[in-house]
Amino acid sequence: MAWIQVRARAPKTLHETIEDHLLELGAVSITFQDGADQPVLEPGVGETPLWDNLVILGLFTADTPSESLRSHLQDVFESSCQFDIEILEDRVWEREWEQHYQPIQFSDNLWICPSWCTPPDPSAVNLLLDPGLAFGTGTHPSTAMCLKQLAKQNLQNQMTVDYGCGSGILGIAMLKMGASRFIGVDNDPQALVATTDNAQRNSISTDDFIVVSPELENQHLTPSYADTLVANILAEPLMMLAPKLVEFLKPGGLLVLAGLIESQVPAVSEHYLPAVELHIADQTDEWVCLIGRKRKH
């Protein structure tokens, strides 16, 4: 079965009007895409921000009169936005989507593999993680750099924490690389669900893998708890959370911070002094990963 797709380019101020018209004309789905490469780095909980310039896709069944669609939309919107109409031949869309995701290697012994792929190195540490909710899958430079730094550490029998755990990818990696226990904290309920689901997919025991909201963290986290603590969030929360993250870290424990860009390093680093002296361990484009150990005295 073929489909008719309407593609509209418009400012976000028109998105509700265009969506309403497409639905009234019989669209079976509406998709919003970024029209100008404008990143949305970290929306707040419950927020669904849109880009300033949008590509709006409306999908119609093949029996929809395409010329009537074009005529109606041009009459309503005139020159305020641009419309294209195309025919989409039917395909096995699940397979089309899967082609874009292949195993990713982060060290000699660490891979992330979608569930539909055979691990390239069965003897390596293989994390099974499928793209789904909008949390880390290892493709963002910040997540990738954290994984590479963790792969360099001896995590055997360590107590580990990921503050802002997202998909749980870093916690799963730490347990699979020898850590004895992991606690993940996130303020987004969807992240907690994603983390738990991914742990189950990787056969991680819930006895060793705990995920909680910040409101419940003190039931599990105590001062000097963590041998290794990771926080892959943004510069502002990294600065705000500095006293808490330092408190949770054992003397001599390793702190790994990411989600910030190079120009933000001085301000973020200052918030962790004198307890932790941070330095840039890795950099990809503007994104950096900081590491440091908590002073023992």
Automatic annotation (TrEMBL):
One BP term from GO: methylation
Keywords: Cytoplasm, Methyltransferase, Ribonucleoprotein, Ribosomal protein, S-adenosyl-L-methionine, Transferase
Regions crossing the membrane: none
Superkingdom to which the source organism belongs: Bacteria
Main localization, broad class: cytoplasm
Pfam families the UniProt entry points to: PrmA
InterPro entries associated with the record: Ribosomal_L11_MeTrfase_PrmA (IPR050078), Ribosomal_PrmA_MeTrfase (IPR004498), SAM-dependent_MTases_sf (IPR029063)
Enzyme class of the recorded protein, top EC level: transferase
EC number: 2.1.1.-
Localization, UniProt: Cytoplasm
Catalytic activity: L-lysyl-[protein] + 3 S-adenosyl-L-methionine = N(6),N(6),N(6)-trimethyl-L-lysyl-[protein] + 3 S-adenosyl-L-homocysteine + 3 H(+)
CDD domains: AdoMet_MTases
Keyword DNA damage included in the entry's annotation: no
SUPFAM superfamilies cross-referenced by the UniProt entry: S-adenosyl-L-methionine-dependent methyltransferases
Keyword Ribonucleoprotein included in the entry's annotation: yes
List of residues binding S-adenosyl-L-methionine: 143, 164, 186, 232
GO molecular function: protein-lysine N-methyltransferase activity
HAMAP family: Methyltr_PrmA
Family affiliation: Belongs to the methyltransferase superfamily. PrmA family.
Protein name listed in UniProt: Ribosomal protein L11 methyltransferase
